[in-house]
Amino acid sequence: MKDYDHIILWLDYFNKTLSRSKGRRISIDKAVFDPTIAELTDAAIHAGFAPLPQESSEQVRYPRRSFVKSGYIVLPKSEEQKKSRVLIRVAEKMQQQKNKQKIRDK
């Protein structure tokens, strides 16, 4: 059953190692290598969204890659926001966080 009241963001949407046919939804230059649920949640919060904590899961399988465990978070839907715009904003924040982490690791 479809959920029309929420936006679901799968980890595979942001995974740089995947092709678009495997599930990546954003451009390769905005994608990151092997994102985690924690990184996705933090990026969504920094982008100004409020993920629903009881609605996230790490042990589910993305339909296009049913042989690999993935994960997703759920955001409340607003009338003025399109999913594509939400994906881009979250991807930009996730990329910024990964870049900061790389600088700290050096």
Features:
106 residues, alpha+beta, Phenylalanyl-tRNA Synthetase, Chain B, domain 1, 3-stranded antiparallel sheet, 31% helix
Structural account:
The protein has 2 helices and 3 strands. The chain has 106 residues and is α+β, with helices and mostly antiparallel strands. It has a single domain, classed as Signal recognition particle, SRP19-like subunit (Phenylalanyl-tRNA Synthetase, Chain B, domain 1, 2-Layer Sandwich). α1 crosses α2.
Structural class per helix/strand content? alpha+beta
Largest sheet, strands/sense/barrel = 3 strands, antiparallel
Count of domains = 1
Listing every helix as H and every strand as E from the N terminus to the C terminus, the arrangement reads: EHEEH
* Overall radius of gyration: 13 Å
Low-confidence stretches: none
CATH topology: Phenylalanyl-tRNA Synthetase, Chain B, domain 1
What percent of the residues sit in helical stretches (DSSP H or I)?
A: 25-40%
Helix run count: 2
CATH architecture: 2-Layer Sandwich
Q: Count the beta strands.
A: 3
Q: End-to-end distance, in Å?
A: 46 Å
Top CATH class = Alpha Beta
How are the strands ordered across the major sheet?
A: 1-3-2
Summarize the topology.
Elements: E1 6-10, H1 37-46, E2 57-61, E3 69-76, H2 83-105
Antiparallel strand pairs: 1-3, 2-3
Helix pairs in contact: 1-2
Summarize the structure.
It is globular and about 45 Å long. By secondary structure, it is α+β, with helices and mostly antiparallel strands.
